[in-house]
Specification:
By secondary structure, this protein is an alpha/beta fold. It folds into two domains: 134 residues, 3-Layer(aba) Sandwich (Rossmann fold), CATH 3.40.50; 177 residues, Glycogen Phosphorylase B (Rossmann fold, 3-Layer(aba) Sandwich), CATH 3.40.50. The chain is 35% helix and 14% strand. The strands form two sheets. It has a six-stranded parallel β-sheet, with helices on both faces. The chain has a five-stranded parallel β-sheet with strand order 3-2-1-4-5, sandwiched between helices. Strand 9, helix 11 and strand 10 form a beta-alpha-beta unit. Helix 10 crosses helix 11. The N and C termini lie far apart (47 Å). The mean pLDDT is 97.
């Protein structure tokens, strides 16, 4: 029997984009034992996936040789390195079975950022790049989106929260105003204008995110949005997205969470571009971006615009987002 390790330690979007590969492996090899290896903090993203036999979590501060010993005990027949990090390089040495990885296209990315020369050729989405690691297992993308399976407990907790706030029947529009790096954040004034427009259109805007996003979420709350940033776990955030009619988000993990639960997305892309592979994958979505000579300026965002103007996101107006929502949501 095949016993396949799928190793991806982080982050939210990267992990969810491996799920089309999980689905393809389960369909092609229904008797295979699929074991997902990730960080403890990321485990909820795949914990309820019905096609995974188990999830092995790297605990905080756990030495990699401890994890390797636990994986060796599972007697894997194959291991797919879907991360390509120093940790996974160590696992390749410590867990003796056939390993394979995928091509991360770092040189092409560097060329595009530094000299604006596109040598990618065909821009392959990251979700499909992962299939390169399984080239010996006879699987192909099926054209479907990522999948984020939500446990009953998370769904029930979000249901109770919405009921307590009188929002059980509300027409929710989820907003994800935060991002790890400033250049991926849409201007706050635009978010505020969008909140007012959405409320006048009959939506209940709800600002979500992690604890680091509470500041901007509270700003939107003072303008009439409901705030949930920092209140929910990853699974609970997914459950809230599943109850929403639409999500407006930058290039963040929340965007992929929404596609994983089937919620339409309006995605705002500034410093990053399609070639990097992280556009919403095979899901109802509108991507808003501006064709500027300075894009892309980084692979994951920076603390400030290198040119000082942040036009890539500042020039995407609230009206553009509203029109995109109208196209997506009947």
């Amino acid at each position: 029997m095949l016993s396949i390790l799928l190793v991806r330690f982080s982050s939210i979007g990267d992990i969810l984009l491996t799920t089309p590969l999980v689905r393809a492996l389960a369909r092609r090899h229904p008797d295979a034992k699929l074991i997902y290896v990730t960080k403890r903090a990321m485990a909820p993203l795949v914990a309820d996936h019905p096609q995974l036999a188990s999830v092995v979590a790297l605990e905080p501060d756990e030495p990699i040789h401890n994890l390797a010993a636990r994986l060796r005990a599972l007697s894997p027949t194959h291991a797919l390195d879907l991360h390509g990090s120093l940790r996974t390089a160590a696992l390749r040495l410590l867990v003796r079975c056939p390993w394979s990885g995928y091509y991360k296209r770092k040189l092409a990315r560097s060329f595009l950022i530094s000299v604006k020369v596109d040598v990618y050729g065909h821009a392959v989405p990251v979700a499909e790049r992962y299939f390169e690691a399984a080239r010996g297992l006879d699987v192909q993308p099926d054209g479907g989106p990522p999948q984020f399976f939500i446990g009953q407990g998370a769904t029930e907790r979000v249901g109770r929260w919405l009921t307590e706030k009188g929002l059980a029947e509300a027409r929710l529009a989820a907003l994800a105003p935060g991002a790890a790096h400033a250049t991926k954040r849409w201007p706050v004034a635009h978010w505020i204008a969008l909140v007012h427009t959405l409320k006048s259109a009959g939506y209940t805007p709800i600002a979500l995110g992690g604890p680091d996003d509470r500041g901007i979420a509270l700003q939107l709350g003072s303008e009439g949005a409901v705030t949930s940033a920092g209140e929910f776990s990853l699974q609970e955030t997914g459950a809230l997205l599943a109850r929403s009619r639409v999500l407006v988000s930058g290039d963040t993990g929340v965007m992929h969470m929404a596609t994983g639960v089937g919620t339409p997305v309006v995605a705002l892309f500034g410093p990053t571009v399609r070639q990097f592979g992280f556009f919403p994958y095979r899901a109802p979505a509108v991507v808003l971006e501006r064709d500027l000579a300075c894009r892309p300026c980084s692979s994951s965002g920076t603390s400030e615009c290198p040119l000082g103007h942040h036009r890539c996101l500042a020039e995407i107006g609230p009206a553009d987002v509203t029109q995109a929502i109208e196209r997506l949501v009947a």
